[in-house]
């Protein structure tokens, strides 16, 4: 795994940190994208992981694309038109697919600016909480490009079409409190309280039956683009699986016996 992402696990919670503070965690190479993809694959292979926190090292969450790399036409954006199309598919789009489809619930702990691709990376996560120092912008238009990472699909599903259009057409930057008002983030906390808040939320998620949490996440994801009848069929199948698990029996017994449950993922 590339040094662009650090991977730490404590008490069934993995913290992934975008670790290039010298460039404000901008993403400019295939190695950067591959590091995110590899980290998510590692999470998916480890059924003991119950929640994931994604944050940035230093003062930024992710500054988006690397402007110097854009100017110099290197990294993901070098080559012909055909090369660029394939580079996006292999690079940032592979990262978007991996992060959005991560089996475990994901929390973006936005510690600073999340700009362009950085904003969309946050939207690839299930939950977003922000430091008071966070800033957000869907700023592709400001550098004469379009959201090539899936932002036009992601952002409307988070803030609604009208606000997504406003952010995308203007490229305007908003602060953390405005992000909360438009429901881009669910809460805003002081800078020093961001990671404690993210860990506390992850712990509350991790306290629940892990396989049922993963199945619930899949139903919520599928519910964003499928018919009700299809989702009901999928829900029935998942529910049949859930009722046959040891964790279901433990949850029911613990509730009846008025004690805290202990879940094993079986």
From TrEMBL:
It is an enzyme of class 4 (lyase). Its EC number is 4.2.1.17. One of its GO terms (molecular function) is enoyl-CoA hydratase activity. Keywords: Lyase. Belongs to the enoyl-CoA hydratase/isomerase family. PANTHER family: ENOYL-COA HYDRATASE, MITOCHONDRIAL, ENOYL-COA HYDRATASE-RELATED. This is Enoyl-CoA hydratase.
């Amino acid at each position: 795994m590339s040094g662009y992402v650090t991977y730490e696990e404590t008490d069934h919670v993995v913290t992934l940190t975008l670790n290039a503070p010298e460039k404000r965690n901008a993403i400019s190479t295939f190695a950067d994208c591959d590091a995110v993809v590899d980290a998510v694959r590692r999470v998916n292979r480890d059924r003991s992981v119950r929640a994931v926190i994604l944050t940035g090292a230093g003062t930024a969450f992710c500054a988006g694309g690397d402007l110097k790399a854009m100017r110099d036409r290197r990294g993901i954006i070098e080559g012909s038109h055909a090369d660029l199309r394939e580079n996006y598919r292999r690079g940032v789009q592979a990262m978007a697919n991996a992060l959005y489809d991560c089996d475990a619930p994901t929390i973006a702990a936005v510690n600073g600016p999340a700009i362009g691709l950085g904003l969309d990376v946050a939207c690839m996560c299930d939950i977003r909480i922000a430091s008071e120092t966070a800033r957000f912008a869907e700023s592709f238009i400001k550098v004469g490009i379009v959201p090539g990472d899936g932002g036009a699909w992601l952002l409307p599903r988070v803030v609604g079409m009208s606000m997504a259009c406003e952010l995308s057409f203007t490229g305007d930057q908003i602060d953390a409190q405005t992000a909360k008002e438009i429901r881009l983030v669910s809460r805003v906390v002081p800078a020093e309280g961001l990671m404690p808040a993210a860990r506390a939320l992850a712990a509350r998620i991790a306290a629940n039956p892990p396989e049922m949490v993963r199945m619930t996440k899949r139903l919520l994801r599928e519910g964003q683009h499928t018919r009700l009848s299809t989702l009901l069929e999928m829900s029935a199948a998942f529910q049949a699986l859930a009722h046959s698990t040891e964790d279901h029996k433990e949850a029911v017994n613990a509730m009846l016996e008025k004690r805290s449950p202990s879940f094993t993922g079986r």
